[in-house]
Amino acid sequence: MAAPTIQNQLLQLLAQYVTAQILDKVRASKYYALSVDECQDLSNHSQVAIVLKYATDKLVEVESFFGFLDFSGLRHDGQSLS
After folding, report:
1. Whole-angstrom Cα distance, residue 80 to residue 74?
2. What percent of the chain has pLDDT over 70?
3. pTM score > 0.85 for this model?
4. Torsion of CA 7, 50, 55, 23, to 10 degrees
5. How far is CA 41 from the centre of its chain?
6. pLDDT of the residue at 34
7. What value does the mean pLDDT take over residues 20-48?
8. Pick from 69, 34, 75, 72: which is nearest to 49 by CA?
């Protein structure tokens, strides 16, 4: 295998591990919230940022960036999402 392929596979495994850790903490939390924010640039390229917020057992608020979704070319107005 080529080095870039191995690097990409390693990064993907690490991302899956971090995602699982965040989701485990959110599931264990009594209080949590999901924040979704969409931004569109002048060329109509649209991205949605997802942030998970949760409280620890000592009620300390934690914010975890979960990722970007690429919505370019997709309709995402209120009518098509309902």
Report:
1. 10
2. 85
3. no
4. -50
5. 20
6. 93
7. 88
8. 69
What does the alpha-carbon distance between residue 55 and residue 67 come to, in Å, rounded to a whole number? 20
Ramachandran angles phi, psi of 75, nearest 5°: -80, 130
DSSP E strands in the chain: the ranges are 32-40, 46-55, 61-70
> Which DSSP state fits 66?
E
Q: Is the pLDDT of residue 48 over 90?
A: no
Domains of the chain, residue spans: 3-81
For residue 30, which amino acid is it? K
Distance in angstroms (rounded) separating the CA atoms of residues 4 and 20: 24
Average pLDDT over residues 42-46: 78
